[in-house]
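Q: My labmate handed me this sequence with no annotations at all. I'd like to see what the chain might look like in three dimensions before we decide whether it's worth expressing. Could you predict it?
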Amino acid sequence: MSANPLDSVNPLDPARTEEEHDPHYEPVIRLTDKDQVEVKTHEEDEDVKFKMRAKLFRFDTSTNEWKERGTGDVRLLAHKGTGKIRLVMRRDKTYKVCANHAITPEMTLQPNIGSDRSWVWKALADMAEGVPTAETLAIRFANADNANQFKQAFEDAQKTNKEIAHSVHPETVETSSTDPAGPSASTAKEVTDKENAQKEEAEPETEAVKEPVA
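A: Here is what I predict for the chain of 214 residues:
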């Protein structure tokens, strides 16, 4: 039997999904325009390249079940400065982030079992909860045409990000510590290797031999 939960579990089967608790309450007092405070979303410096309504799921490894993350607009946002594209999805009404990750060349959209309007993929560093988290996600659209439009836009974004990564010289690669989508795996590794090399060059030569770690 395959160890991959995607081989035997349909993420869109109602019998195998559990909706995450996300209550919505209407405000007791409604604010006027002068009372409202501008809220930064970290999306002000990005252009919307793709936008479509969908429902998102995540695979919970602790319970071996798919859980609904929310319904809303899935968007592909391109940074006005770097051109890099990330995926962002917010829940209706609450606008809570339910998906936020860079679109990397390693990602693969897998067709969902028995459905032509949904896709499954893995994100190694999803930032929906504020910290990089490996997630297996599934998304369902209203019809097959919408699903195919998303796939095309997703793959186009992968090509764009790959071209941008190849055009940047290694000496000018940034750590992306302030990137809303978080650092990519390749960027993080490159920065770490560079820092280690600099430390080795800075260390004074010594004749002392360190004992190997058991």
